[in-house]
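DM from R.C. (forwarded with permission)

"hey, sorry to bug you on a friday — could you get me a structure for this? deadline for the figure draft is monday and I only need the backbone to look sensible"
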Amino acid sequence: MPHATAHNTPVGLRSPLHFEIRGSGPDLVMLHGGAGGIADLAELRERLGTGRRVISPDQRGHGRSSGEGEISYAAQAVDTAALLDELNVRNADVLGWSDGGIVGLLLTRDRPDLVGRLIAISANAALSSRHGPDLRLEDLGRISASVLYLAADADIVPLEHTVAMVRATPGAHLAIVPDADHHLVLKRVDEVAAIVERFLTG
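My reply, with the result:
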């Protein structure tokens, strides 16, 4: 894959986000999980980067981005939208793992102009508005983009919860990686990449 170009860009009135851009072609935005950064998805990015422009931000308070302001799933989705607006990106493919999957779902729900297809890996939604990640199962019915939910059979997110998310999302797809855990993007990267590639090219 071509060498990454690193950037820092102001997002709204908040401090800059660090992000990297690699390659050229249709846009693929990759969103890392909690307490992580761009490097967590490096191997997956290598496998999916051929023929694509891959945009990888360090989310607020992660990696090389500062932690100024609110750090929540909703705030990270707003940050991501502002970054894509800054880059004049529309109708991108978005892949998010774990917390990044939640951010991707919120982004897809709130800014459908930015997302053409979403891959949500090991993500979850709250069962009620009283607790959980800024996203309720009923919110998923507002998503119009094509969504692939990808999970491990031994994920920390219960499989029945992932199935409930699939049922709540119009036209969603489900793929399960057997004998895998929540860190499937690190431990089973070839299988994950193959599943994602089939979804994006099918």
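R.C.: lifesaver. Residues 5-201 form a domain with the Rossmann fold fold (CATH 3.40.50.1820).
me: no worries. The helical segments are 42-48, 73-86, 99-110, 159-168, 184-187, 189-201.
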